[in-house]
Specification:
Blueprint (H helix, E strand, L loop, with lengths): L2 H10 L10 E4 L5 H12 L6 E4 L26 H11 L7 E4 L5 H15 L5 E5 L5 H11 L4 E4 L19 H17 L2 H10 L1
Parallel strand pairs: 1-2, 1-4, 2-3, 4-5
């Protein structure tokens, strides 16, 4: 495999083994697999709280509904956070363990608003687990690390079927995978700023 393909894959696709943590973050979206993965981690005892993030995309007029498993998750959801709360509770997570952000509209806001609601709830985060799509991992880590510069953050992606089944070993095999991964690479370069760099340095 070409070294540039390997290097891009290693950069974009971050994945860690879960460890005991203070909290689990679900990055906003409409794939129930994210909530199911977070519930799996919660039920395994990896963290006592889960943050659900998301209103709906800034370019949308409302929550579009689940991407899959619509027979299982068939509620009338106003926000991504509402949707993930339903996924979590249906998978054994008590409502008292869920901290909601139902206002964020994009990834950086997911991270920044997660910091706001955890601070408001009095939950200190020394270590957190980020649950996201595989190809979204680096950008999520970048923004959550900026929001929680002193925390150790682990990325534990969810498996998502269909066109979103993009992984480090196959992204370059399809036009869709190439477009998504190179799009993420571009966004990582465009969306990071000097303030983020300062926060990363504070966390060292």
């Amino acid at each position: 495999m070409s070294s540039i393909i390997t290097d891009i894959g290693n950069f974009i696709f971050v994945e860690d083994e879960p460890q005991n943590s203070d909290i689990i973050f679900i990055v906003g979206g409409s794939h129930p697999e994210l909530g199911e993965k977070a519930a799996e981690l919660y039920n395994a005892g990896f963290a006592p709280y889960v943050v659900t993030s998301g209103k709906y995309g800034f370019n949308l007029d409302g929550f579009p509904g689940p991407r899959s498993k619509k027979d299982t998750y068939d509620g009338k959801y106003e926000t991504e956070s509402d949707f993930f709360c339903d996924v979590l509770t249906k998978n054994g997570v008590p409502r008292s363990a869920i901290i909601e952000d139902n206002k964020s509209e994009y990834t950086r806001q997911n991270a920044d608003f997660a910091r706001a609601v955890t601070d408001e709830a009095g939950v200190g985060v020394k270590r957190g687990i980020i649950v996201c799509k595989r190809f979204h991992a680096r950008r999520c880590l970048m923004f959550y690390q900026s929001a929680f510069p002193k925390a150790q953050l682990l990325v534990v992606p969810a498996d998502i079927s269909g066109e979103f089944d993009i992984a480090k070993d196959n992204w370059h095999n399809s036009e869709y995978g190439i477009k998504r991964v190179l799009g993420e690479l571009k966004r990582c370069g465009e969306q990071i700023n000097a303030e983020d760099i300062t926060k990363y340095q504070e966390g060292v």
